[in-house]
Amino acid sequence: MKSVLLGLLLLAAGVRADVLQLEQFSEGTVLVDAPDLTDYQLGAHLYLVPGTTHYRGIVGRATGYYTTDSTSTWGLYAFVADLSQSTGMGDERIMLRKWLSDGQTMTTIKIWSHAELGALYPSTAGWYNLGMAFEGNQITCSINGQTLPNGTWTDDSFTAGGFDVYYFDLMDTASHLSFDDVLVEVSDTALPPVTDLSITVPSHLVAQLHWSPSLGASGYRVECLRNHGSWQELGVTMETHREDGFEPGTRLYRVIALGQ
To answer: 206: pLDDT confidence band, cut at 50, 70 and 90?
Structure first.
C-alpha cells in the first residue's frame, strides 16, 4: 500500500497548526480530484458532537463534483454521522449513502443505529476516525479502525474517483467541520508489461536484450532460465541488459517492470 497524508491548508481555514476547519453557509466539501483512483482506503479524523443536527463525514470515489449555473452535478459515496437526538431529525445514526451522477438522486445504502453500533457510536464529543475502504465493487466502513457490524457493502455505481471531507446542515448555517489527518492508502497497481523484447548477439558468447519501456516503471529486473532450471535474477537496470561469457545451452529471458 502507498500512503499519502494530505495537507489541506490551502483549501480550508486553519484552527490551530494541525487542525483544519471547513466553514460554509450550509454545505461544504474539500475535494481532492482523482478521477483515475480506484481501490484505496480513506480515513479522516473528524470532531463529532452528539445532539447536533448536521451531517459530518467523508466522501470517496467522487466524480465531477462542481456547480455550473447553480446546478450541481456529481457522483459519490458518503459515509456520514447524523447525531441528532430529535425524532425525525436523524435519530442518532451513521449512514453510507450515494449520490448518482445526475447530482440530484440520493440513495441510502445502509443506516447504522446507535443501538446497532453500541460502543462504536460517537456518544461523547471528541475526535473520531471515519474510514471507507474501496476494493472493486465492495465498500467497507469503519470507526476508529474497527469495521462496523455488517460494514461491507456491494455497489457498482462508481469504480473510481477522488475523496474529501463533508459537511451539510440546512438548519444551522453557523456551524463548521473540524477535521485532521486525512489519510489515503492506495493499493499498488501492476505496471503494464514490457513489450518488443528482443535479443541480439553482437559477439561470441555475448547477449544483448532490448525492450520497449513500460509506462511508470522505475527500473527493470532481468531474469534468465537456463537449461530448464529455475529463474535467476541477472540484475536490475534502467534500459537494456548485456550478458557476457555465458555457456552454450538453452536460455529463456524475461524482463519485469518495477514500480516506484
So the answer is: confident
